[in-house]
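Fold it.
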Amino acid sequence: MARRNHALDTAASPGRRRILQAALAGSALGPLAACSDGGTSSGNTDYTNTIRDGQAAIAQAMADTDTSSVSVALLDGQHVVWQEAFGVIDSANKQPVGINTLYNIGSVSKVFSAVAIMILVDRGLVHLDSPASDYVRDFRMLSPDFAKVTVRMLLSHTSGFAGANYSNIFTFEPILDYARNTQAILAGQHLKHTPGELAVYCNDGFTLAERVVEEVSGKPYSTFATREILEPLGMSLSRFPLAHYPAGSFAHALVGGTDQGQEFVNAYGSGGLSSTPSEMMNLAIMFLQKGEFRGRRILSAEAVAEMGRDQTGDVVLNPAPSWKWGLGWDQTDHPGMRAVGFSCWQKNGGTNFFGSDFFVMPGTGLAVMITGTSLAYGAGALAERILLHALVDQGSLKHLPPPLPTALPPIAATDPAVLGAIEGYYGSFEGVSRVARNDSGSVTLSRHESGQWINIASGLSYREDGWWSADGLPLSYRTSDNGPYRYLMMRVTAGSGHYQILLPYGQQIQAAPALPAAWRARLGKHWVLINEHESSTVFSAESPLFTLTEIADLPGYVQIDGRQPLLPDTAQRTRQFMKIPVNHGRDLYELIAQSQNGAEWLTFGGYHYQSLDSIPYAALGTQTVTIGADGYCQCLKTRGASTLTITGARAWRLFDSQWKALKFVQGTGSATLSADQNFFIMIHGEATSQAHVSLA
């Protein structure tokens, strides 16, 4: 397929923080043209009611959230009883999606990584409780305990890795070396907790599992997974994004009216597979048949059982024991299905533009996969709804579960000790939140954003059930102490409203000693992200300019772009100090300052930032720019020119003085400038290549 010119300078995106949240938690609860094969069960159950309700719910969810397409499949035993696609592939041709249209399934890909590892376990080539470094022999980290990270920990989110390498994870062109780049980044990081101490969502564990498969099998992960999983399961459409897909085969997301084209998810083991709900039912059949598919054994029954076993029994910090991680599964006993008496394995997936959910119910023979071109249409809630109706049609459930009562317990007398326990500051990967008391004895939860406190929940009163809640709010809060850590716990009514889930929202943090002089000198300064490929969705999601700030009433910490609170350890490095299980403790990085080319640069996770004040001016005339040996883009600033022409670059971008993208060009191109304004230029190319910049 020809290379597609994407409007990378203007495309809309949900932004980084939304992506991180979507990669675990199901999006909120959505016709256009629909396509179905008219398939019905070859068994004895009539699923007409389930299908009609599902069709209406999906259409409503799509309309409510402006989701361009959704695809779904429902399985009973070995029969696909419903498969249907709603919406259009792209905005230009209005071609209806079909049941064979590919979608990015995001983190549902982790189930395939776990299957790949278990195939090697079955063959005696990998042992779950052996160190990952036994198989990836050049794997290193700064923490000596990296040698204690086992293969099991990679698949159960207990490794202690910081989280996810987001550098070039989502792009509009294929990036083929993401896994090895991630391993190189891990070599410069510390563990954020002792291996096995807690379970917190971690993409990099599955990327290293991808490397385990490669080293043990001697094949690229995509090749191994295709030959050993996809092909035996008859998943001939499913594939990894090694190149552009054939035109008309892949659903495009529409964001703000802009067609996003093909999104490449380059973390194959963590989130890179593209598939269809219909083909995912073949994987579900394999699980329901305890490792067999159409007479061929893919996994041993023991391997399937181990994947579906709760892996959190031995973790030390576990304030939310209802969250039962499996190997590759988010839940081995989904609370929504458990609330009506059934066991269920579940995996959610989110990318920049896609949301998916995959449920398998071993005891009933049911499975469902739903995927769509947004994060907002509510894949998880829709999947639950479909399964509940199917259980009723199947006769396994007498009636749909009623929603939980909405009336709150009476307000209890406010114990000063209880009030004092919940007051204070709480850190998480999202940033810093504060619980402050009101004159009435209630409390308000707020989050620090853009230098001010924004209310999240006001008028939370202490109730007789021991939770802080307010009329009209779906969330309740309380504290939980685990060893030396105090967590602000969040309780929310989920799914179809018939059950609640419990999550640690943040870890309580105290004011720290005054910032060292080196860190205080960095406050308010600006840095530019310079190691992203030109097709990275970061450039359509947000500005590449970032600022180092502090929180005035919580001294001792710094933040980069309002993210997690960072506690300085040395003059050049912050240190890990938060341990938050499940989701809000994910993606907690160290911030590193280092000198490069006579200027100070920052490293945060997989991102590298150049200080804004070190970007040189480009004078009038023609000059040659050489891309460095690291391949990072080269930045220039200019003023006083009316025209700009660049030749020899792979791609380049033009920004205004506030780093708002004005133009994106692949190859040679020109732009008209205002001579009285400042502009910034970002030039991309191969390492050591040269581009020529002409200003007149």
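Residues 1-42 have pLDDT under 50 and may be disordered.
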